[in-house]
UniProtKB/TrEMBL annotation:
<dbReference type="Pfam" id="PF01008">
    <property type="entry name" value="IF-2B"/>
</dbReference>
<keyword id="KW-0486">Methionine biosynthesis</keyword>
<keyword id="KW-0413">Isomerase</keyword>
<keyword id="KW-0396">Initiation factor</keyword>
<dbReference type="InterPro" id="IPR011559">
    <property type="entry name" value="Initiation_fac_2B_a/b/d"/>
</dbReference>
<dbReference type="InterPro" id="IPR037171">
    <property type="entry name" value="NagB/RpiA_transferase-like"/>
</dbReference>
<dbReference type="InterPro" id="IPR005251">
    <property type="entry name" value="IF-M1Pi"/>
</dbReference>
<keyword id="KW-0028">Amino-acid biosynthesis</keyword>
<dbReference type="InterPro" id="IPR027363">
    <property type="entry name" value="M1Pi_N"/>
</dbReference>
<dbReference type="InterPro" id="IPR000649">
    <property type="entry name" value="IF-2B-related"/>
</dbReference>
<feature type="binding site">
    <location>
        <position position="88"/>
    </location>
    <ligand>
        <name>substrate</name>
    </ligand>
</feature>
<keyword id="KW-0648">Protein biosynthesis</keyword>
<comment type="function">
    <text>Catalyzes the interconversion of methylthioribose-1-phosphate (MTR-1-P) into methylthioribulose-1-phosphate (MTRu-1-P).</text>
</comment>
<comment type="similarity">
    <text>Belongs to the EIF-2B alpha/beta/delta subunits family. MtnA subfamily.</text>
</comment>
<dbReference type="GO" id="GO:0019509">
    <property type="term" value="P:L-methionine salvage from methylthioadenosine"/>
</dbReference>
<dbReference type="GO" id="GO:0046523">
    <property type="term" value="F:S-methyl-5-thioribose-1-phosphate isomerase activity"/>
</dbReference>
<protein>
    <recommendedName>
        <fullName>Methylthioribose-1-phosphate isomerase</fullName>
        <ecNumber>5.3.1.23</ecNumber>
    </recommendedName>
</protein>
């Protein structure tokens, strides 16, 4: 996607250096930074310089590649695997990418590993871009169907939660990809963007949509249900950090409440996901997915642009009050209308996922 007229991915390599968009500063300031050491890759993932399940996976693959360029031994490969795997527990793409890297590299002679690891990281990045593009192509069909039933010129009104945009992937995004495709196809849309406390990642979605010329409104997390009751939401699309083999969806905290409101008001609730986000080893999301518990300061403080133009943190709670911060929740498959994958749209069920990915389901 474009930033100030220049094409960017969220991660790239150039002249032996890996660079990322440092998302800690968005949407207030656009900064890029090079990351090189294994510790820097671990910090970038753990402290959310990069975020979003697909991007985390690709970043880990690049971390393996940089480590192999220094020390391609078996011990260094295993150490890099364990260090990066320990950074974030919920998003399955992290383990998926690390498993692919280890499986590809272990059979090779040490002298062959650095080149092979870099090639794999680049391939995973390209695969992610294409998967997300196709999610947009398939999701566009849903928007077209709704648009066809509306009076001419009236926008399709979508609601999304957290940021499942191109910043959370390598490009296009998952939930936002159908929105970008609809805009490019000339279909009028309007997006309700949840703020998504505590890190206000809806601000990233608003930044992306604004850059692409998509009409949108930034709303509080608690406004979505009211908008659905008033008939002002035609479709909900979110992303996911891990989807179980039966279609349960684990996404940013608050997603479950949106799904409940959508179910109660007859609003279709769809989830965009690349197949790398499906955990085929897990069935019951409530019982089996580990939920990351992040630091309380993310709840008690908020980052923003201050009156003097600087970027800073402000405490919003009484001094001494602790913040509880479960980062994700699980939306049971029964509340999900459908899953938008790179292979097409399916029911959120074991059978639905098997119809899209028979070789993986087997």
């Amino acid at each position: 996607m474009k930033v100030n007229g220049t094409d960017y991915r969220s991660i790239w390599d150039r002249d032996g250096q890996v660079e990322i968009i440092d998302q800690r500063w968005l949407p207030h300031d656009f900064r890029t930074v090079a990351i090189d050491s294994l510790d820097e890759f671990a910090v970038a993932i753990r402290d959310m310089w990069v975020r979003g399940a697909p991007l985390i996976g690709v970043t880990a693959a690049y971390g393996i590649a940089r480590q192999m360029s220094r020390d391609p031994s078996d011990g260094a490969l295993q150490d890099a695997y364990e260090t990066l795997d320990a950074t974030r527990p919920t998003a399955i793409n992290l383990r998926w990418a690390l498993d692919r890297a280890r499986a590809d590299l272990m059979p090779l002679a040490p002298g062959e590993r650095a080149e092979a690891a870099l090639a794999l990281a680049r391939r995973l990045a390209d695969e992610d871009v294409e998967c997300n593009r196709l999610i947009g192509v398939h999701g566009l069909k849903l928007i077209r169907e709704i648009a066809a039933k509306k009076p001419e010129g009236e926008p399709v009104r979508l609601l999304t939660h957290c940021n499942a945009g191109w910043l959370a992937t390598v490009d296009w995004g998952t939930a936002t990809s159908p929105m970008f495709h609809a805009k490019d196809a000339g279909i009028p849309i309007h997006v309700w963007v949840d703020e998504t406390r505590p890190r206000n990642q809806g601000g990233l979605t608003a930044w992306e949509l604004g850059a692409h010329g998509v009409p949108h409104t930034y709303i509080t997390d608690n406004a979505g249900g009211h908008l659905m009751q008033e008939g002002m939401v035609d479709l909900v699309i979110t992303g996911t950090d891990r989807t179980t083999s039966q279609g349960d969806v684990c996404n940013k905290i608050g997603t479950y409440l949106k799904a409940l409101a959508a179910k109660d008001n007859g609003v279709p609730f769809y989830v965009g996901l690349p197949s790398s986000t499906i955990d085929w080893t897990v069935r019951d999301g409530l019982k089996e997915i580990p939920i990351e518990d992040r630091g309380g300061r993310e709840v008690t403080h908020i980052q923003g642009t201050l009156d003097d133009g600087s970027i800073g943190w402000v405490r919003v709670t009484p001094e001494g009050t602790e913040g509880g911060n479960p980062a994700f929740d699980v939306t049971p498959a029964r509340l999900v209308t459908g899953l938008i994958t790179e292979h097409g749209i399916c029911e959120a069920s074991t059978e639905g996922l098997a119809s899209m990915f028979p070789e993986r389901a087997a």
